[in-house]
Design brief:
alpha/beta, Aspartate Aminotransferase, domain 2, 2 domains, five-stranded mixed sheet
């Protein structure tokens, strides 16, 4: 079997054909290799495989043909030299960070992170003697001032979860490289369709493939994209020995998701733009945050590094937690879930779900107010979604006014 290594295709073509391996049976769809191990023709061949002197697979914790296809397709789309898949997005984040760090090192990260990502930086790393400093990711001077002689890595997400702040990736990459550190970027919200962190200077990009890449709420997965030097020096041995491996079945599901990623994200983004505009005029909404809108606080940076504003909208309901809960409970089409990037539109209340482990002061510092809702826009008809949101907000607004 041979893999098509072409790097000249348009991303849309790579999403369908990239990295495909075909067995002698000539199957059209990618094959699922549901195997733990592999058979060798001789003991000598086994020895050569384990010495990396002979190509081939050894054990599916290390690598697997179906997983390889997913990794190669992701690398082609992202414009990365290599990719390694993991069991979840958080496994990708943890592997990308811990594989390159040792006791005595220092990490600088943006404060505005997904709760579990912040846990890795703020709680897990210090347990192993890796110190961390959290900064306002929008403040370039804060990044510079946080650098220490032992700083080895920067970490950020942009747009951020859930307030959709945008960080200047290219500028932060320059600061990191001047300090001799690597920049790791979580690109989940922007998706690889609308933002390319490696082209902006990032050294490592991570995704929760659970989100837009699967896109239909079926399975978990993650992926780390980097250059071959980082893979060979840090990541490969970490994944091989610690085992955060993606299952072949999930890799196959994710391959099917990649085939429609561009179509889905383009449709979802177009709908998100319409929803953001509609919510902005609703009297029950205090503010709307959407990276594609001209009134976004970092609109100039959005225009510089993002092609479009992507699929997420955040909005604050007047009346705090009670009004936000009434709005969420009043939705009929949009479902309440802490997932995102799904074909179905999903809403969550970050203060009590994804970021509940943070203190109230920390949440408020990040702009996560009690009335904030995070909306992941799906594939439903835009008019139906706008009607659903409007009806729910009308009910929440009426209840608030009656209480007053």
């Amino acid at each position: 079997m041979t893999a098509d290594k072409s790097r000249t295709w348009h991303p849309d073509t790579a999403l369908v054909h990239g990295g495909t391996l075909r067995s002698p049976f000539g199957e059209t769809s990618e094959a699922m290799f549901l195997t733990q191990g592999y058979v060798y023709e001789s003991a000598e061949e086994a020895e050569a495989r384990f010495l990396n002197l002979s190509p081939g697979y050894q054990y599916s914790r290390f690598s697997n043909p179906t997983v390889t296809m997913f990794e190669e397709r992701m690398a082609m789309m992202e414009g990365a030299e290599v990719a390694r898949a993991t069991a979840t997005g958080m496994a990708a984040v943890t592997a990308a960070m811990l594989s390159q760090l040792s006791a005595g090192d220092h990490v600088v990260a943006a404060k505005a992170l997904f709760g579990s990502c912040r846990y890795v930086v703020e709680d897990l790393c210090p347990r192993f003697g890796i110190q961390s400093t959290l900064v306002d990711g929008r403040d370039l001077d804060a990044w510079k001032k946080a650098v220490q002689p032992n700083t080895k890595a920067f970490f950020l997400e942009s747009p951020t979860n859930p307030t959709l702040e945008v960080v200047d990736i290219a500028a932060v990459a320059d600061i990191a490289h001047e300090a001799g550190a690597r920049l790791v970027v979580d690109n989940v919200f922007a998706t690889p369709i609308w933002q390319k962190p490696l082209q902006l200077g990032a050294d490592v990009v991570v995704y929760s493939a659970t989100k837009h890449i699967d896109g239909q709420g079926r399975c978990l997965g993650g992926v780390v994209l980097c250059d071959k030097e980082f893979l060979d020096k840090y990541l490969q041995v970490f994944i091989r020995q610690t085992g955060p491996s993606l299952s072949p079945f999930n890799a196959w599901v994710l391959l099917k998701g990649l085939e429609t990623l561009s179509l889905r994200v383009e449709r979802q983004t177009s709908t998100a733009e319409q929803i953001a505009a509609a919510l902005r005029d609703h009297p029950a909404v205090g503010r709307v945050i959407y990276p594609g809108s001209p009134d976004h606080p970092q609109a100039d940076i959005c225009a510089k590094q993002m092609i479009r504003g992507s699929t997420m909208v955040a909005f604050e309901v007047k009346g705090g937690k009670e009004a936000a809960f009434r709005t969420a409970n009043g939705l009929k089409i949009v479902k309440i879930s802490n997932n995102l990037g799904d074909a179905k539109s999903l809403v969550t209340h970050p203060s009590t779900t994804t970021h509940q482990r943070l203190s109230e002061d920390a949440r408020l510092e990040l702009g996560i107010s009690p009335g904030l809702l995070r909306l992941s826009v799906g594939l439903e008809y835009p008019g139906d979604l706008i009607g659903d949101l409007t009806t729910a907000l009308n009910g929440a607004g009426s209840a608030r006014l009656a209480a007053e």
